[in-house]
Amino acid sequence: MQQGARYQAVLDLISEIFKDVKPADGIIEAYLKSRKYIGSKDRRFIADTVWEIIRSRMKLEFDAGSREYRKILLTYLKKKGEDIEAVFDGGQYSPTPLSTEEKEWLQYDNEDVYPPYVEAETPEWLYKKVRDDRLLKSLNEPAAADFRINVKSREAALDKLKAEGFDVYPTPYSPLGIRSRERIPLGNCIAYKEGMIEVQDEASQIAALLCDVKPGHKIVDYCCGAGGKSLAMAYLLQNRGHIFAHDIEKRRLMAIKPRIERLGIKNIELIDFLATSDKDFDRFVVDAPCSGTGTWRRSPDAKFRLNQNMVDKLNRIQIELLEKAYEKTVSGGRIIYITCSILNEENEEIIAAFLQNYPDVRPVNIKELWESKIAAPYPYHSEKYLRMSPLSTGTDGFFVCVMEKE
Question: Residue 49: how many CA atoms within 13 Å on its side-chain side?
């Protein structure tokens, strides 16, 4: 493809993504899938450029003084030092030529200092909630590729991946984790296809470890989504015991099936939890629906689709789920509350409200729990709950609180 055609594809994509209705990864995938004539190098260039623009969106809009998609792209090209008129050459597959107004506009440089929220690449209302510039900037950096082993020896999985030519190494905290310095094309990865590894961020692996599951436990992973923690717990149990996986969205729940088959898992049962009257669970894992603010490294576009009404609705659901967990957990059992959020109102504030209403529930000392499962030093200060982030653990932003029903 000519450079103009490449950037026309970029313009097409940001014009759709910046409507802030649908996730960017799905839009990019659908766009490229419907244009099979685009070669692999061009696909990589288009996708990488779109993600770079998304991660720089606040600054680009500020410098452009506009939210017009074409001006955002022009500002990006100007900052990159591209020959803009060569890109906007009016060719068959290129953007239309620059107008006189656009040429004059390009001569202007916005020299205003970025406000803190723009510097942090975060919508202002969210910036005011978090007020941690270093954390927000770290969440705007691309994430490494993390995997969980599905074999007894991490060294065996590392050796297999290295033999395939991948630059991989152990994760610093999770004893189950492998990290790659590069993208691993899963369709061409033998270790993945043979079920030796599974995609899972290190923070999610740690959350599964802290559930402290044992073969005799009756376990439910509620709101399990794509089932990453269910699969990790199944691995930890070495196919013993019984894990019930539930999600209200049947499509997401059914997506676990091929993963179960590829990994050879035998101890997960997919259920409609709403139809059960059981109240004797030893481990009730509340993988709570949340804002996903801790996963912005992977989905930087998500911050622009979030609003306060959505957070308020999620808060109500989070409290309801903990109340359900209390009702269904046996005395002496544990409720594990997990989010991939960095917002206090989805984490500490939810736990505080729940504990106030249920005085017979107490937080387990999570530092001691960590030290019983993980050799690496405990990375946080609180013994009531654990926060992980790109700054503290090099992972997604995660919150974990383990509580015991007395």
Answer: 21
